[in-house]
Design goal:
four-stranded antiparallel β-sheet; alpha+beta; Helicase, Ruva Protein, domain 3; 8 helices; binds zinc ion; N-terminal domain of MutM-like DNA repair proteins
């Protein structure tokens, strides 16, 4: 699933492409994906895009008349920027046309969603209102993180994945962040003292920043808005590497399940 760095990559690609363009139409073959958009398509027709922003794993396209198109890629979604005349892409479910450019929402698993809402309502309708703090925009510092996580009952990974605490972390960056921190994903949060919580914060931030810098992780199917793969998969220490040698100490990486998710860690490097 695309996480913060992957969605940030797409949003930073889309912003210059869409800014100042006018919405033309939205057509989808899978009604479940666009059910939240259909009622308001006419409200944004011929309206200009003001900006494109990310919140958690959501893409928000803001229009001049205070409407917002929100997209969540869920498990396998991609947004590819095309020429309006281009043929449909493989697994294309929805096309979103602007003057001179056409976004193609390709989604093998069909869990992705598009909404069009008034700016005053979109956060509640899409679930954005339930998101926690953004980790990379300066809203979260180490003491805020310690305050938020200290004494929480349950695994470290469970709390890192909880979108109502820190928004945008998924399986990849939770495992990588734990490796950087030297803390096992299955350790209970309430057992971490402030020093270790501080390490966990630094580790997660480092993993996310590296993901953004390398334009996302393309393990299964992530592509940017131009259809190119990210580079972060070449820099992963643990995610997807269970059974392989730790790049730091050469022991065999352990594969397990934490918080219901496949999880990889190093028994030597992580306590
Ligand atoms: Zn190791």
């Amino acid at each position: 699933m695309p996480e913060l760095p992957e969605v940030e990559t797409i949003v930073s690609d889309l912003r210059p492409v869409l800014k100042g363009r006018f919405f033309v139409d939205l057509v989808g073959t899978h009604e479940n994906s666009i059910i939240g958009a259909l009622d308001n398509v006419a409200s944004i027709r011929d309206k200009k895009v003001v900006t494109v922003e990310r919140r958690g794993k959501f893409i928000n396209i803001f229009f001049e008349n205070n409407y917002v198109m929100t997209i969540h890629l869920r498990m396998s979604g991609r947004i590819i920027s095309c020429d309006p005349g281009d043929e449909p892409l493989r697994f294309e479910r929805t096309r979103i046309d602007f003057n001179g450019v056409s976004l193609r929402f390709c989604d093998v698993r069909k869990f992705g969603k598009v909404w069009i809402c008034k700016a005053s309502e979109y956060e509640a309708v899409t679930g954005i209102s339930r998101l926690g703090v953004e980790p990379l925009n300066g809203d979260l510092n180490v003491s805020g993180f310690i305050e938020m996580m200290k004494g929480r009952k349950g695994s470290v990974k469970k709390w890192l994945l909880d979108q109502s605490k820190v928004a945008g972390i998924g399986n990849i960056y939770a495992d990588e962040g734990c490796f950087y921190a030297g803390i096992r994903p299955g350790v209970r949060m309430e057992e971490l003292n402030e020093k270790k919580l501080g390490r966990l914060f630094e580790g997660v931030i480092k993993a996310l920043k590296q993901g953004v810098k390398n334009r996302g992780t393309s393990i299964s199917d992530f592509q940017d808005a131009y259809g190119y793969k990210g580079k972060n998969q070449e820099l992963l220490y643990v995610y997807g590497r269970g059974g392989a040698k730790c790049l730091k100490c050469e022991s065999i990486l352990k594969r397990t399940v934490v918080a219901g998710r496949g999880t990889v860690y190093c028994e030597e490097c992580q306590e």
